[in-house]
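Bench notes, afternoon.
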Amino acid sequence: MNVSAVLFNVFNSLFAAVSAFADMKLLLFLLLLTHIGVVQSHKNRTECFQCEGNGRCSSLCQAPYCIKTIHLQSNHVKRECLNHLTPEMPQPGNCKKFDSEVGNQEELICVCDSPRCNSAHLTSISIFILLSILLILSPL
């Protein structure tokens, strides 16, 4: 076997390894995007959000439960924090339709427990930051 054939095989092997590593980085990036998409779609599906005090949105909820009420005919949205759920309210992470007490309107009430929402949000951010750093610091 001559030197050029050996060098060709070495470079071919290195190129294959580099290509596989680049494919792995692409796969990690796609997994990251998929994870973010799944987390976001789950949050949209369950109508999770954070609120405080008199219903203003903020980064952290100061009460155990966040309630989002949507009047379906007018699309008016009301947010509030509650310390206790009534028995007819949906469980955290779910929504339920009700007949409004005012007029003949339907309401969609969504409940989210604030610790789960806040921790899910922080977890997705920390995973995103960690994977971004790994992708940036990797040599290829």
